[in-house]
Amino acid sequence: MPLSTIYQSIQEDLVKVEDELRSVSEVDFSWLAKLLGYSLKGGGKRIRPALTLLAGKFYNYNLSCLLPMATAVELLHTATLVHDDAIDKSLVRRGRPTINRLWGEDKAVLLGDYLFAKAGEFAADTQNLRVIKLFGQTLMAISSGELNQSFSAFNLEQTRQHYFQRISSKTASLFSLATDSGAILSQAPEESVEILKGYGYNLGIAFQIVDDILDFIGTEKEMGKPIGSDLAQGTLTLPAMLLMERYPDDNPVKRLFHNEEKPKNIELAIELVRDSSIVQDCYRVASDYCSKACHNLNLLPDNASRQALMELANYVVSRKR
Amino acid sequence: MPLSTIYQSIQEDLVKVEDELRSVSEVDFSWLAKLLGYSLKGGGKRIRPALTLLAGKFYNYNLSCLLPMATAVELLHTATLVHDDAIDKSLVRRGRPTINRLWGEDKAVLLGDYLFAKAGEFAADTQNLRVIKLFGQTLMAISSGELNQSFSAFNLEQTRQHYFQRISSKTASLFSLATDSGAILSQAPEESVEILKGYGYNLGIAFQIVDDILDFIGTEKEMGKPIGSDLAQGTLTLPAMLLMERYPDDNPVKRLFHNEEKPKNIELAIELVRDSSIVQDCYRVASDYCSKACHNLNLLPDNASRQALMELANYVVSRKR
Fold first, then answer.
1. How many Å lie between the alpha carbon of B103 and the closest alpha carbon of chain A?
2. Whether B107 contacts B35, CB under 8 Å
3. B306–chain A nearest CA distance, Å
4. Residues near B269 by Cβ (< 8 Å), separated by ≥ 6?
5. Are B212 and B160 in contact (CB under 8 A)?
């Protein structure tokens, strides 16, 4: 099912999120306006703001605070992408040159800072102290997860526990913020807040696992960025870990992490993963997290949003980009 | 008068700010703990948290919100320094190697992000929505000021208006946040909030002008970083502007901005500024801002803090580092 169908019940309000995002680049300082416009231009799947709106649909759907929060989570996401690309010196994102490629890493760092602040301002517009606090904690989790990833680059001594810890901080925390805040802002009872928060968290884990699979089996055209970039950055993801487990003595991941013939070994690793059951095994793990995400949804009121959240979980494991 | 004497009335609570800053590095993830500990280790003048505490002394001095806010402004300041150093590829700060030099620019960017988030969390601990909102707006002002500086690097077509706009965003905004928030959190009447906010703003402008002077007349030992670094980065500060005005046809600033013999022309520019009345003229501008800062302080209750704010203004123009 395409995202547009899944988003149907919140489509109108997602358009308002786009309007808010567009308004962010309406600033006097023309260079800043240009950079903001470029970084916020469509192309993203807008899953995170959709999650906030969907999670807000079960009780008191109050757009005056859900709209700024949905905008805040998308801005926070964009800010982390801008910084990630600068750090990784990535050249392409969503099929377009990155900010750091066009304007330099220094501008990308400062633009990201501005976006973090703007996201914080939108979060503050909810006027909800609990949500504001969660917002700050999420940014802490994300940057600490990214630092963790950066410090463990090209380190082969990593367990699955490390992997799950890392993706929990760097990805699931923001998915969890999206649904958690939507629930809180709609004055959901605490049990429902927990269910929706857990949904976001588990969906986020599944989403990242699929991202990591697609870095092996996707195409550059679909993904909008080069394949194999995790390996190139020295990031050990689940497919690479499974490959290491299957070929413990000698394998291309080990070799390239020891800095031997990088491009060739990346290609070999991709081939090995594609030609094995590793992909299937990883998808099974992702599916399990999706099931876990949906497990308690039936305790929530039965409405179009509940259905949408179920379908979104299916989408996450079947997506091609 | 040394800072320790000026800080006397808030000395005890500044120690508590140090304790809070120390607690920030108590995290499980050992690399993060190390980076946080290093970046927050003393050596700074702690002017910004002192301003928050002093501004809070005129009405209802409520440490339970002033302490987190004072900590927040110092963390925000530290975060911007960490990012600035990464962007400028600076090697030394406060006489010590920078984070980017020791651990790389990527780690510095992520550490800065974490510090921004932690600062935001402390700001949220004030539970004051107005202050939280101001906090976000200040980070927006700072990063937009830094972006402005970055985009105008090596551009000779800059007026004083540009200069004041830039230092207003990148420095005065944080000084202004420090006093503004202290006043708001102590439930000062609006006129007093305005007076204290104006004090912080004007003091911040004066502080930055003196910083820009010291980059010409200081010593590397006193400053803890190389002299002439603004020129090396292509940042046109007030002393450099005055030099351009005095020697409009040909001068070392013009030459080095045209990328001719950089080190030699930086040295020449420093010599020319030192041997002229430019230093004195810039100090006069800074002093005027300090006078402006103090102008309305006598409308506030007469107490030790009022005296301290006056003395701090004197300190700012007489400091050597």
1. 10
2. yes
3. 32
4. B216, B228, B231, B240, B243, B251, B252, B253, B256
5. no
pLDDT of residue A42: 66
CB contact under 8 A, A32 and B124: no
The residues pairing with B312 across neighbouring beta strands, listed in sequence order, are none
CA nearest neighbour of B143 among A73, A21, A118, A122: A118
pLDDT the model gives residue A196: 98
The pLDDT value given to residue B260 = 86
Containing domain of residue A55, as a range?
Answer: 3-318
Instruction: Inspect the interface and report whether the beta carbons of A151 and B107 lie closer than 8 Å.
Output: yes
Contacts of B82 (CB under 8 A, 6+ apart): B39, B99, B108, B111, B112, B115
pLDDT of residue B225: 83
Output the pLDDT for position B42: 65
pLDDT for B1:
87
pLDDT, residue A111, reads 97
CA distance B277 to B237: 16
pTM more than 0.90: yes
Q: Helix (H, G, I), strand (E, B), or coil: what is residue B129?
A: helix
Q: Where are the alpha helices (DSSP H) in B168-303?
A: 173-185, 190-217, 220-223, 229-233, 238-246, 252-257, 262-274, 278-294
| ipTM surpasses 0.90 | yes
Torsion of CA A25, A26, A31, A37, to 10 degrees: 30
Q: What is the mean pLDDT of chain A?
A: 95
Q: What CA–CA distance (Å, rounded) separates A149 from A126?
A: 32
User: Which residues in B lie closer than 8 A to residue A29 (C-beta atoms)?
Assistant: 144, 147-148
Cα distances from B51 to residues A43, A86, B7, B174, B309, in angstroms, run: 45, 35, 9, 10, 8
Task: Tally C-beta pairs within 8 A across A and B.
Answer: 137
Contact A147 B27 (CB under 8 A): no
pLDDT at B321: 76
Query: Smallest Cα–Cα separation from B39: which of B24, B19, B49, B53?
Result: B24
CA A285 to chain centre: 17
A43-91: pLDDT as tens digits:
789 999 999 999 999 999 999 999 999 999 999 999 999 999 999 999 9
What is the number of structural domains in chain B?
Answer: 1
B96-97 vs A92-93, strand pairing mode: unpaired
Please tell me the predicted confidence (pLDDT) of residue B297: 97
| pLDDT of res. B308 | 98
Domain of residue A283, CATH code? 1.10.600.10
Give the model confidence (pLDDT) of B238-262 as tens digits.
Answer: 999 999 999 999 999 999 999 888 8
- How far apart, in Å, are the Cα atoms of B201 and each of A225, B100, B307? 45, 30, 18
Per-chain mean pLDDT for chain B:
95
Q: How far apart are CA A299 and CA B65, in angstroms?
A: 40
Residue from A38, A65, A106 to probe the interface with B (highest B Cβ count within 10 Å) = A106
Q: For residues B166 and B188, what is the distance between their CA atoms, to the nearest angstrom?
A: 29
Residue B230 has pLDDT above 90, yes or no: yes
Q: Which of A112, A117, A140 sits opposite B118 (nearest CB)?
A: A140
Q: Residue B146: its chain A contacts at CB < 8 A?
A: 110, 113
Q: In chain B, which residues have their Cβ closer than 8 Å to the Cβ of A136?
A: 117-118, 120-121, 124
The values of phi and psi at residue A39, to 5°, are -75, -25
